[in-house]
């Protein structure tokens, strides 16, 4: 039982003008079926109707909306992927730069510098730096800054030297053009940022390929179950 606004009645008479030709009621489709009128005019009579909401002939706007929605989702996924690649490239370049930093300053000096840099950095940047050194925030630790500060105070001179350079780069990147800042920092350490970029993109492509390869297996296992 469907109300009239959920179906399109197909008219028996032929269109009398070009305008009527364009109207849904004068068009046929593969979903057309017989229906019995149960209320209003012509009660008890049989008419041909289309009640499929996905019909491209009688519901073209809905089809267009679905396509637009799919396009938007695809674009969002593309942007998410590109952002993930960009973040990984940044961290990889940062890691390469940090590994080139020699031990020069005393520990107390390095600790003083890095603590001040951490104070200036936004929470998400500190989280990136912490993740770079394998630090994960615990729910009861009072925030990533507190957790990472405790790690910093136990670190040796070599780690602190690396952290000073990495933190200064992240701080500069957050206040300017991140891509330019990374390229300049990489150039000063004679690093090939293009090679790092290529490797990261290859890794992401390999993960995506592996993910797609496992999907049919999962579906088959579900059907078997």
Topology (SSEs and partners):
Blueprint: E1 8-10, H1 18-21, E2 33-36, E3 46-50, H2 60-98, H3 107-120, H4 123-132, H5 144-154, H6 157-174, H7 178-188, H8 193-224
Antiparallel strand pairs: 1-3, 2-3
Helix pairs in contact: 2-6, 2-7, 2-8, 3-5, 3-6, 6-7
Structure description:
The chain has eight helices and three strands; from the N terminus they run E-H-E-E-H-H-H-H-H-H-H. It is mainly α and 225 residues long. The chain is 62% helix and 5% strand. It folds into two domains: 4-57, no CATH class; 82-200, no CATH class. Helix 2 (60-98) packs antiparallel against helix 6 (157-174).
How would you sum up this structure in a few lines?
By secondary structure, the chain is mainly α.
Helix fraction, binned, reads 55-70%
Could you say which structural class the secondary elements and strand pairing correspond to? mainly alpha
Major pleated sheet:
3 strands, antiparallel
In N-to-C order, the SSE pattern is EHEEHHHHHHH
**Gyration radius, rounded:** 31 Å
What attributes characterize this protein structure?
single chain, about 220 residues, 3-stranded antiparallel β-sheet, 8 helices
């Amino acid at each position: 039982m469907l109300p009239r606004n959920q179906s399109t009645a197909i008219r028996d008479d032929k269109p009398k003008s070009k305008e009527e030709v364009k109207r849904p009621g004068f068009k046929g489709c593969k979903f057309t079926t017989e229906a019995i009128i149960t209320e209003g005019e012509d009660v008890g009579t049989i008419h041909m109707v289309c009640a499929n909401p996905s019909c491209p002939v009688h519901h073209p706007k809905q089809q267009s909306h679905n396509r637009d929605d799919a396009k938007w989702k695809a674009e969002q996924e593309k942007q998410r992927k590109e952002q993930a690649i960009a973040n990984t490239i940044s961290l990889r370049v940062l890691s390469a730069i940090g590994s080139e930093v020699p031990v020069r300053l005393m520990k107390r000096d390095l600790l003083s510098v890095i603590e001040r840099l951490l104070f200036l950095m936004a929470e998400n940047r500190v989280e990136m730096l912490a993740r770079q050194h394998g630090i994960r925030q615990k729910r009861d630790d009072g925030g990533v800054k507190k957790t990472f500060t405790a790690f910093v105070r136990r670190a040796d001179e070599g780690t602190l030297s690396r952290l000073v350079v990495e933190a200064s780069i992240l701080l500069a990147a957050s206040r300017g053009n991140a891509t330019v800042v990374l390229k300049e920092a990489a150039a000063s350490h004679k690093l090939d940022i293009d090679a790092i970029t290529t490797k990261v993109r290859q890794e992401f492509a390999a993960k995506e390929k592996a993910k797609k390869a496992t999907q049919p297996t999962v579906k088959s296992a579900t059907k078997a179950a």
